[in-house]
Amino acid sequence: xxxxxxxxxxxxxxxxxxxxxxxxxxxxxxxxxxxxxxxxxxxxxxxxxxxxxxxxxxxxxxxxxxxxxxxxxxxxxxxxxxxxxxxxxxxxxxxxxxxxxxxxxxxxxxxxxxxxxxxxxxxxxxxxxxxxxxxxxxxxxxxxxxxxxxxxxxxxxxxxxxxxxxxxxxxxxxxxxxxxxxxxxxxxxxxxxxxxxxxxxxxxxxxxxxxxxxxxxxxxxxxxxxxxxxxxxxxxxxxxxxxxxxxxxxxxxxxxxxxxxxxxxxxxxxxxxxxxxxxxxxxxxxxxxxxxxxxxxxxxxxxxxxxxxxxxxxxxxxxxxxxxxxxxxxxxxxxxxxxxxxxxxxxxxxxxxxxxxxxxxxxxxxxxxxxxxxxxxxxxxxxxxxxxxxxxxxxxxxxxxxxxxxxxxxxxxxxxxxxxxxxxxxxxxxxxxxxxxxxxxxxxxxxxxxxxxxxxxxxxxxxxxxxxxxxxxxxxxxxxxxxxxxxxxxxxxxxxxxxxxxxxxxx
Length: 507
Fold this sequence. Notes:
Low-confidence stretches: 1-17, 187-196
CATH architecture of the largest domain: Alpha Horseshoe
CATH class of the largest domain: Mainly Alpha
Mean pLDDT: 85
InterPro entries: TPR-like_helical_dom_sf, TPR_rpt, TTC5_OB, TTC5_OB_sf
Largest sheet: 10 strands, mixed
Pfam families: TPR_8, TTC5_OB
TPR repeats: 115-148, 300-333
Keywords: TPR repeat
Distance between the termini: 58 Å
Structural class: alpha+beta
Radius of gyration: 28 Å
Number of helices: 18
Strand content: 5-15%
Domain Tetratricopeptide repeat protein 5 OB fold: 386-498
Number of domains: 2
Oligomer: single chain
């Protein structure tokens, strides 16, 4: 009898081991499924989106079948993990589904401290559009443990909520903080999503009530950027989003996805009105760190958002290269391809217009320059320390204690509203571009206007792209209020901060 009892005990242990192995194997299969989705176009560059979705569904059905086979033999202690795995597998679908929600709800019911289930439930709520519940899920995780996924999701979420401009700014800062905390926990995590914001926020915040969790923190960071009734609320939420992203990084400094969320939080903060050059530099630095993670090399939206930052910094070569990479990683994602085409058209047209001095005839240019008078310098006329200079006397970079006067010879049309781009000539008839940022919509300049630029920031552009070689000089103006136009300083109403939507694509 003792031998039979021992054999039965060993059989039971072997059975338990088989069950644990089965769930672990299914968990690995789900991770492989997400990797298959993210790298699909790398391995199948000519496939259609329909083919991609069909192949994903085929693999998903296989995983669900494996789960069904194991359901009847589950121990009570494995039920939570079983339902979490089912919900996570189903969560690969882009839309909210009741089946996914029910599986994840069962998972957290069986084990209220199952962090991964709370994070998946938060994402499910986000897809549905219920931001507060999503935030509660992520914050709930962070009350259990410090989790990178919750942190970076909070980072995204925080940039989307806020009732006043102050609230929105605070949320953006919190978003960056959550993204950083997520990275500290795991810099290799490459999953991102976007969806039902309020309920998702509730889920993530619920997690944070349990433990400090990087997943909840970064998810909150993402969510916070999507909520807010007023400009003040939205700005506060973006600040909170930055904070959540930072917290996620504190949990795992090597998590590339958390670095990506932090970059998005900084970029959102910059375009929420801070307009601090350091902020956009921090965004690009975070994107660069994200790309050090091998898992992020399949993220088309990472390359897209990095390109947005590079373009704003007038690194046109880098922007085009990153847009091409984004388009190659996901051919069904039309935005990068369109932006690349528009940017190339803008650059080639600008190069041509500078070479041709706005297509004005020499006599017209001469007439315009003859009308350039000392009184056009406005407050800089006869200034004791600030001197007028010609373009050829300037050096690359900022030129302090001087002004440059020029005549507008053309306005360059562009598919994007910012920056306003002018072709201008100085008193020597040297033609160069002027890019003006933060100009209010509806404001502009006429051919023949005289603009005076203090402390001109000279940039040299050189682009070698496909069969194009483009080179030109331009002066960057970050605020129109710095200019003197036709002898007068511009009214404050001429300025309006650039607003931008950060692209976070959920497949």
